[in-house]
Write a structure and sequence with these properties.
The complex is a heterodimer of chains A (579) and B (180). Chain A is α+β, with helices and mostly antiparallel strands and 579 residues long. Chain A has a domain of 169 residues. Chain A has twelve helices and 17 strands. With 180 residues, chain B is mostly helical. Chain B has a domain of 122 residues. Classes of the chains: A alpha+beta (579), B mainly alpha (180). At the A-B interface, helix 2, helix 8 and helix 9 of A face helix 2, helix 5, helix 6, strand 2 and helix 7 of B.
């Protein structure tokens, strides 16, 4: 199929597929180095979605009755994504109704396809992984070790923290104290009240590191607590991937939007020759084209990257691109958990400041317990039971209960002001049977196969879910809560109650992480990319993002993948220099 | 800083609404079932104030019209009469009518009026209405988000995607006066 005689519609030295958090940052890093070294390096970014207009995104958010994470963003039929309300409208997953988490977990991880990518609605938590996360097998006898260490990544972590403008001090997720470029983001009043309760239980609440501006930084304004950052930051105080896409453009990189890459063409020499795309800039008249480059970077996140690799079978890559190991799409990891909420006996004033969270529990993130159960990240949600519609739901409930007049007003105030909600995210270990494949019999609107998901967890994670669930309920008791978030009397968090809950509802996967599907390793037989994210199979293909993770840990994933991407960009530039 | 920012937002809206109410309110209200003039909105606002426990002055004229229009969209003539009766009765009640007396009054009018009263309060508080019939049945229409009365009730916060105030304001307890 390789056809070097075809005239390319797009031609560059380096083509990056996906202008999101990692693709944009790499484009910038490469363009900056080329500029510094006075090298002519043509870089093109190709994204399946459009540029996001922030003002339009805010208006779209306000008009949406649901106001979920995807609500502010355009939904283009040529770039489908899972919805928060029903992720199976895109994901294909068998076994609906199965609640046994050892057999099936409903996969609900979300992402966006646009310029800036999923970072438009990420939490803005910029956490480093723990050193032990990179050597889980050695440290705790669980999972596997990475081919790189924390020490390897440390300078790249620091660079990304500078690039994003990370604020923090002695944060709960810092593996060791280190300086942050921006002053710390204070805990909310709610965090402080939960901390009082936590200390009764031998735990405590500490601050998170954020990539939302604590002071004006890099041309972006200071955060003013819009209480919507999990959905859209109206002022751009929260960092998102579009920042470095624009910076890369300013240094000469080209951006092609609404171009859906449908195939990666590998030649007989096992080099990627070109990619084929469909251009939807005029949605009524899509045009097919090809793009050629010396080197390709695939940065389309944990589902779309392996989807494209698996779709791109040809005679030279019969199992799909970069897939001689049969590991593409496997080892899918997304944190799981059961959240808990209740009403405090006194106002704690949620719905103020940055949502999702400013505070988290110190305990159960890392330590010897990981020999027995999975790492746990529990954060205190500043947005109550529902960051956007929570107060509206309290009004609904009060009116249903017969409240009118000042009694209605008072009940809405009191019920909203006393909401406490804990979000539990529990680590999931790599399992080759947890995977994304292609549903050839279930196509999207453009005729491409939808991603099919197989997902379950093991006893190690189930135990972590139980411990985190119990701690959350113990915290509600310690706070003096009398009722849960449904208004029912608070019950004791026994194992029996947990098992009954799981038997009825199952355990949900969270929205925050999609990892492992293009895993990193030294051995080409058991991994997809090497420690610099270069495909073992194709010398001129790099695959970046959280898909490269060997294990997931429980911290927010983006900072680590960004650090790995910057390291990869350095390596790519050095390779170009040598060439 | 938070109070200044908040006040500015509300003053802007009020100025705008007062401006249009004074010049072309009749034009704005034309086509709304059962309401012909801007002054006809005052009983509606008074009835709504009573149910919601929040005073709705003339600055809420436009929003009141939007809400009334949404409530009566596709309504039968009889249904519109029922709305008018509910508004007339509630608007004549004293402003300090207790919740208990309000319930008694609505009960005496019949269950459909209690349901209408609840719907009216719900739409004011949430700024959204659930469509019960037609092609959009079962979906919610957002009439307003920023002006939904929950944000008036929850004075310790403000509508998301609205600037809350100076960096770090959230570390302090709510002072108890004004929004944030």
């Amino acid at each position: 199929m390789s056809d070097t005689m075809i005239k390319a519609d797009i031609e560059a030295d380096i083509i990056i597929i996906g202008a999101g958090l990692f693709g944009g940052l790499m484009a910038y890093e490469l363009a900056k180095k080329a500029d510094i070294h006075n090298k002519d390096l043509k870089i093109a970014m190709i994204d399946s979605g459009p540029v996001v207009d922030r003002v339009e995104a805010v208006q779209r958010f306000k008009k949406s009755p649901i106001k979920s994470g995807n609500s502010p963003y355009p939904k283009e039929p040529w770039a489908p994504i899972p919805s928060e309300e029903d992720p199976t409208d895109y994901y294909v997953q068998d076994g609906k109704g199965e609640t046994d988490p050892l057999k099936r977990v409903a996969f609900g991880a979300l992402y966006l396809r646009n310029v800036g990518g999923t970072s438009w609605h990420f939490t803005g938590h910029a956490e480093r992984m723990y050193p032990q996360d990179f050597k889980l097998k050695t440290a705790y006898g669980r999972g596997e070790d990475w081919p790189i260490s924390y020490e390897t990544l440390e300078p790249y972590y620091a660079r990304v923290e500078q690039a994003w403008g990370v604020s923090g001090n002695n944060t709960v997720v810092a593996p060791n104290p280190h300086p942050y470029p921006l002053p710390y983001t204070p805990l909310t009043y709610l965090d402080q009240q939960v901390d009082v309760a936590a200390q009764k239980l031998g735990d405590s609440v500490g601050p998170m590191p954020h990539c939302r501006n604590a002071v004006p930084y890099d041309g972006r304004p200071q955060c003013c607590g819009n209480a919507s950052c999990r959905f859209v930051c109206p002022i751009g105080a929260k960092y998102d991937g579009s920042v470095h896409v624009e910076k890369a453009q300013n240094l000469g990189a080209k951006l092609y939007t609404n171009h859906v890459v449908r195939h990666i063409e590998v030649g007989a020499d096992q080099q990627v020759d070109h990619i084929r795309f469909r251009n939807y800039e005029d949605p009524h008249n899509p045009v097919d084209g090809i793009a050629k480059a010396k080197l390709f970077i695939l940065a389309a996140h944990g589902i779309e990257s392996p989807r494209l690799l698996l779709m791109s079978k040809n005679e030279h890559a019969p199992h799909g691109v970069a897939n001689s190991s049969d590991q593409v799409g496997r080892n899918l990891m997304s944190m799981v958990g059961i959240n808990a909420g209740g009403y405090a006996p006194m106002p704690v004033y949620p719905y103020r400041g940055p949502v999702n969270a400013t505070g988290a529990f110190w305990q159960l993130r890392n330590g010897e317990f990981r020999k027995d159960f999975a790492s746990i990240a529990t954060i205190i949600i500043n947005g109550g039971f529902d960051p956007t519609n929570g107060p509206l739901n309290e009004a609904d409930r009060a009116i249903k209960e017969g409240r009118f007049g000042s009694a209605l007003r008072n009940q809405v105030f009191n019920a909203t002001a006393t909401q406490v909600y804990f979000d539990n995210s529990v680590e999931v270990l790599p399992d080759p049977e947890n995977r994304m494949t292609l549903a050839w019999d279930e196509r999207d609107d453009t005729g491409l196969p939808r991603p099919k998901i197989s997902y379950k967890i093991d006893e190690y994670s189930v135990e972590g879910v139980y411990i985190s669930w119990k701690r959350a309920w113990d915290m509600l008791w310690a706070l003096g809560a009398k009722t849960d978030m449904h208004g029912d009397p608070l019950t004791k968090p026994t194992r029996k109650a947990f098992d009954a809950y799981v038997a009825k509802h199952g355990i949900a996967s969270g929205a925050a992480m999609i990892a492992g599907t293009t895993r990193m390793g030294n051995d080409p037989k058991s991994s997809v990319v090497d420690p610099y994210c270069r495909s073992h199979d194709h010398n001129n293909l790099f695959i970046v993002g959280t898909g490269t993770y060997v294990t997931s840990g429980s911290v927010s994933p983006s900072l680590t993948a960004a650090a790995i991407s910057v390291r990869s960009a350095d390596h790519i530039f050095e390779t170009f220099q040598q060439a | 800083m938070a109070l200044i920012s908040r006040s500015f937002t509300y003053l802007s809206r009020r100025r705008f609404i007062q401006g249009i109410a004074g010049t072309s309110a009749i034009a704005l209200t034309s086509g709304i079932s059962g309401i012909a003039r801007a002054s006809d909105m005052m009983p509606f606002l008074k009835a709504s104030s009573l149910l919601c426990g929040i005073e709705l002055d003339r600055s809420y004229m436009q929003l009141g019209e939007d809400i009334y229009r949404a409530l009566t969209q596709g309504a039968t003539p009889q249904d519109i009469k029922n709305w008018q009766r509910l508004i007339d009765v509630l608007a004549k009640l004293p402003a300090k009518t207790t919740e208990k007396h309000l319930h008694q009054k609505l009960k005496s009018m019949g269950p459909r009026y209690l349901e209408k009263a609840r719907l009216l309060a719900r739409v004011w508080y949430t700024g959204r209405i659930e469509r019960k019939s037609g092609s959009s049945a079962g979906t919610f229409e957002v009439i307003t988000y920023d002006e939904a009365l929950v944000w008036q009730a929850c004075t310790f916060t403000k509508p998301p995607v609205t600037c809350g105030g100076h960096f770090g304001y959230w570390q302090h307890p709510y002072s108890g006066t004004g929004n944030i």
